[in-house]
Amino acid sequence: MKFIASLGAGAAVWLSLSLSLNAASAQDLNVLCAVQVEWCQMMEAVFEEKTGLDVSMERRSTGEILDRVRAERDAPKIDVWWGGTGDTHLQAAGEDLLEPYQPKNFEDTLPWAQNFFLMSGGKAAGIYAGALGFGYNSDFLAAHGVAAPSCWKDLTAPRYKGLVQMPNPNSSGTAYTMLATLVQLLGEDEAFEYLAALAKNIDRFTTSGAAPVQAAARGETGIGISFIHDAVTQKLAGAPMVIVAPCEGTGYEIGAVSIVKGARNPEAARLFVDFALSPEGQETCAASGQNQIPANAKASLPPAAPDISLIRMVDYDFATFGSPDQRRRLLDRFDKEVLQTATPVATQ
After folding, report:
1. Is the dihedral of CA 213, 328, 194, 252 positive or negative?
2. What are the C-alpha distances in Å from 198 to residues 184, 201, 248, 329, 337?
3. Distance separating alpha carbons of residues 68 and 49, to the nearest angstrom
4. Which of 51, 166, 238, 345 is deepest in the core (most CB within 10 A)?
C-alpha cells in the first residue's frame, strides 16, 4: 500500500470536507464497482484513507448493477455506481435513475470524456477508456495444434470449436459492447449470423467481462474475448498471452461513474465522484495493476496501457446503443438467436 502513503498531499483538504458530512449511518457511502476487483479494493482503501469515511464497496458486473439500480429505484441502497461500460450508464440516465452532477475535475478531462458527460445529460462522467479485442494463450493453441487468430472472422473457424470463451451480454457490459460493435461493423443481420456461428465454438459464456481472458491465461481455454487492457494485465502477470486487435476493426468502451438518484449519502457520493476524476483517483488504476486509459489529462498513463490510436476503431455510436429500447431489443434477439441455440450455454 505504498501508493496510499504517496497520496498524502492534499489529504487535509479531503478530510475537512468529509468531516462536514453526516456520518449518522453505519456506512458513509455505498458503492457498486464494475472494474476489476483489485481496482475496487484499491479505490476503497485510498478513498477511506483520504477522507476518513466508511465505504462499502461491492464488485458486480455492469449488467447486474443496472438491474439492481432499476430494482431499487423507489428506495435506493446504493449511492455511487463506479465503472463499467458507458452504454449502461446512458441507459440508466435515460430511465431517470441517475442524479446530475458535474465533477470538480471535469475541465481537466479529455474530449471523449466531456462528450460522454454531455451525452448523458450531465448524469454520468467518463473515467477511463479501453478497446475491445481478444487474447489467446500461445502455449494452449500450440498444444492443440491450431493456428493463431487475428480477425473476428477467424474465431468462427471449426478448428476453434470449444476453445473460445466470451461474456454474456445480459450481465456483461464488455459483451454488450462486443454485440454493439459487431452490429456497427457488419450490419445487424450479419452480426447475428456471425454470433450464431461463433456460439458453436464457445465453451462458456461468462458473467464477467474479464473472465474469458483470465481463463485463457490459466490455460483453461485457448481464446478469451474481453477488453484489451484486461488481456494486458494477464500478460504482465506472466501468462503466455498474445493480444489481438481484430483486423476488421473493433469498438471501445468509455467507463463511467454515476450518482444514483435518491442516494442516501449524496454529499459523500459527490466527494467520491470528484476523487474518481482527480489525478490521484485516476492513478489508482495503474497502482492496482490495471491498464485502462484515464480520462483526466493530468493523470499519468499506465505504462502498459494499449495505444488505441494504433487500433482500427469503429465510430462507436454511444447514443444509439446506449438507448434502453435498443439494448433490450438486441439482448432479446441475442437470447433467441444465439444463447438459446448454443451448446453448451454454461455461464460462470
Report:
1. negative
2. 17, 6, 16, 20, 12
3. 28
4. 166
Which residue matches cell numbers 484486461? 230
Q: Cα separation of 147 and 139, whole Å? A: 11
- The single residue listed with the C-alpha cell 435515460 is 94
Instruction: Map grid coordinates 476524476 to a residue.
Output: 277
The one-letter code for the residue type at 229 is H
Per-residue pLDDT of the chain (348 residues; tens, 9 = 90+): 333 333 333 433 343 344 344 333 457 999 999 999 999 999 999 999 999 999 999 999 999 999 999 999 999 999 999 999 999 999 999 999 999 999 999 999 999 999 999 999 999 999 999 999 999 999 999 999 999 999 999 999 999 999 999 999 999 999 999 999 999 999 999 999 999 999 999 999 999 999 999 999 999 999 999 999 999 999 999 999 999 999 999 999 999 999 999 999 999 999 999 999 999 999 999 999 999 999 999 999 998 998 888 899 999 999 899 998 999 999 999 999 999 877 654 454
Nearest to 299 by CA among 327, 273, 321, 277: 277
Cα torsion angle, 193, 196, 201, 206, sign: positive
Contacts of residue 259, defined as CB under 8 A and 6 or more positions apart, other chains included, come to 79, 80, 81, 98, 99, 101, 123, 266, 269, 270, 273
Produce one character per residue of 102-132: b if its CB has 16 or more CB atoms within 10 Å, e if not: ebebbebbbebbbebbebbeebbbbbbbbbb
Ranges of H-type helices in the chain: 2-6, 11-19, 37-51, 62-71, 86-94, 111-119, 138-143, 173-186, 188-199, 211-217, 228-236, 266-277, 279-282, 284-287, 318-321, 324-337
How far is the CA of 22 from the CAs of 19, 27, 29, 49, 95, in angstroms?
Answer: 8, 10, 11, 18, 29
Do residues 65 and 32 touch, judged by C-beta distance below 8 A?
Answer: yes
Do residues 267 and 252 lie in contact, with contact meaning Cβ atoms separated by under 8 Å? Answer: no
Other C-beta atoms closer than 10 Å to the C-beta of 101 total: 20
- 279 phi/psi in degrees, rounded to 5: -55, -40
